Amino acid sequence: MTEERARRRARLASGERGVLVEPAADALTLYAVFTGVPFAVAAYCLTVQRAELGAVGLTFLLIGFAAGIPLALRVGERRRAAALITEIRAVHPLGPDCHPVRTGLNEPGRTPGHLWDTAPPRDAVVSVRDDILQLRSENGESLDIPFSDILGVLLLPAGRGRAAADLHLHSGEAIELRTTRIRPLGVTLSEAGVRVLFEDVHV
Q1: Three-class SS of residue 112?
Q2: Percent of residues in the chain assigned helix, strand, coil, to nearest 5
Q3: Which of 24, 101, 147, 200 could staple 177 via S-S, CB 3.0–4.6 A?
């Protein structure tokens, strides 16, 4: 385990109380607004007031296209995630809330790492069912972790590197669950009773 993850583990092992993660506004909706407003302004300028505001309309049109790139990327990501969840749910019974994650390719560090943390990277789905955290990968592998085996989860927003949920077990092992949507995952885990903390940056 690296020094950084050892520090996270020490924090989870302390008496710090877990938090109940609150849902936030859907980023996809915000991106849609940021894309739609410039296009609406551009449409007005280029149709109703083309003579006076044509240049302004072209500017907003370019802004709309630029703002639409993150939206298109998010839509594509959501579609891939939905396809992955559908594929895995067809084979494995899962809880009601499923979250796509990526695992693997972490250094074992000073202590042996968990196989799901050090294996080659793979896409997987996290779900909660009957006080068990379920991990199901795209290649058919599965892992069930009872809540009693979980020390806690530290949510790491993208501001400190790649966004992830660092899951630590009482055994000393840890599994990093990389995801662009750590807050929805945190909501599911905290509402289910898993102890969740935020890294010391704003999310």
Answers
A1: coil
A2: 45, 25, 30
A3: 101
Cα 11 from Cα 15, distance rounded (Å): 8
Q: Is 75 exposed, middle or buried (0-12, 13-18, 19+ CB in 10 A)?
A: middle
130: Cα separation from own chain's centroid: 22
Q: Which helix (H) or strand (E) holds 185?
A: helix 182-192
At 149-172, the pLDDT tens digits run: 999 999 998 765 578 999 999 999
**Contact predicate 63/45, CB 8 Å:** no
Which one-letter DSSP state was computed for residue 130? T
* Terminal-to-terminal C-alpha distance of the chain: 25
Q: d(Cα 115, Cα 165) in Å, to the nearest integer?
A: 17
DSSP state, residue 17: P
> Which residues, at least 6 apart from 133, have a Cβ–Cβ distance to it below 8 Å?
126, 127, 144, 145, 146, 147, 150, 167, 189, 194
The greatest distance separating any two alpha carbons of the chain, rounded to the nearest whole angstrom, comes to: 71
Q: Which tens digits make up the pLDDT trace of 59-106? A: 888 888 887 777 777 777 778 888 888 888 888 889 999 999 999 877
Residue 123's pLDDT band (cuts 50, 70, 90): very high
